[in-house]
TrEMBL record:
<dbReference type="InterPro" id="IPR018300">
    <property type="entry name" value="Aminotrans_IV_CS"/>
</dbReference>
<comment type="function">
    <text>Acts on leucine, isoleucine and valine.</text>
</comment>
<dbReference type="Pfam" id="PF01063">
    <property type="entry name" value="Aminotran_4"/>
</dbReference>
<dbReference type="InterPro" id="IPR001544">
    <property type="entry name" value="Aminotrans_IV"/>
</dbReference>
<dbReference type="InterPro" id="IPR036038">
    <property type="entry name" value="Aminotransferase-like"/>
</dbReference>
<keyword id="KW-0032">Aminotransferase</keyword>
<comment type="pathway">
    <text>Amino-acid biosynthesis; L-isoleucine biosynthesis; L-isoleucine from 2-oxobutanoate: step 4/4.</text>
</comment>
<keyword id="KW-0663">Pyridoxal phosphate</keyword>
<dbReference type="GO" id="GO:0009099">
    <property type="term" value="P:L-valine biosynthetic process"/>
</dbReference>
<dbReference type="InterPro" id="IPR043132">
    <property type="entry name" value="BCAT-like_C"/>
</dbReference>
<comment type="similarity">
    <text>Belongs to the class-IV pyridoxal-phosphate-dependent aminotransferase family.</text>
</comment>
<dbReference type="InterPro" id="IPR043131">
    <property type="entry name" value="BCAT-like_N"/>
</dbReference>
<dbReference type="GO" id="GO:0005829">
    <property type="term" value="C:cytosol"/>
</dbReference>
<dbReference type="GO" id="GO:0006532">
    <property type="term" value="P:aspartate biosynthetic process"/>
</dbReference>
<dbReference type="GO" id="GO:0009098">
    <property type="term" value="P:L-leucine biosynthetic process"/>
</dbReference>
<comment type="pathway">
    <text>Amino-acid biosynthesis; L-leucine biosynthesis; L-leucine from 3-methyl-2-oxobutanoate: step 4/4.</text>
</comment>
<protein>
    <recommendedName>
        <fullName>Branched-chain-amino-acid aminotransferase</fullName>
        <ecNumber>2.6.1.42</ecNumber>
    </recommendedName>
</protein>
Amino acid sequence: PINESKYIWRNGEMVPWAEATTHVMTHGLLYGTCAFEGIRAYETPKGTMIFRNDAHAERLMYSSKIYGIGIHYTKEEIMEACRRAVRENGLTSAYLRVNAYLGYGELSPSATGCPDELDVIAFAFGRYLGADAVDKGIDVAVTSWRRSAPGTIPAGVKMAGNYLSSRLITTEAKARGCTEGIGLSHSGMVSEGAGENLFMVKDGKIITPPTAASILVGITRDSIMTMAKDMGYELVEQDIAREALYGADELFFTGTAAEVTPIKSLDGITIGTPGENPVTKSLQDAFFGLFDGRTDDKYGWLDPVEG
Ligand code: PMP
């Protein structure tokens, strides 16, 4: 169940949660023309902060541009809508879902006469992959579904329709008793999780698939890569063969919802030494430290909702 909050920011106004409904002929519903973002706001010792608000606004504008969805707000106005949605709901921490989509107006994939809609929904949200996933790790499966190939539906932008692939991957993984699934790229190399980027640690080196492997270029991925390099780790973006995953010392997922979550088994095979994930732990410490004050926000990633 969703933890409903009081108001939703809708095209510039705060409307009651129950009234934020839409017509069944909405273009975004009929054809998937909805760019979106998932963002987290954390309670920190310095107040509630939205993590990388600007990067999310930028990615939303980028996704919308490719599909001809107009956004009639500046980046700063989108960021302020996010702050306002958290603030006016009295939330101290939140998950935000921002939708930019084509509304009701015309029946055709090439429609140019639909209104551009923008919604920001902020609500209370806990751990995505289970209460102890971040500490204990999760069981994962490489599923039979491939991620979309280059030149088809672009995996590198965040559109609602892309999550048809995620649904197939994660549903198959759950049917096999796992918490989350991985998709391979069209060429058979490792791509990413249904809603997470994937990292592998081998002999102290950190490896993650390149953007060409049909991944969404995650903002958490970028944050972890930046911090890992600052911490002195050797980090490479490089194609990973499926079999290399089973020989990894550590595997972990990153994502706004998933945060930094270790993978303890893959296809029933134990990864590394159970309970020992020194590299993942050090990155988790750095990441979660941003929110509890142990890590200095030297990157300027925290955006206060109180302005
Ligand atoms: N890949 C996919 C398919 C996702 O849905 C997400 C979650 N948005 C990610 C990666 C991670 O991206 P981010 O860190 O920006 O949330």
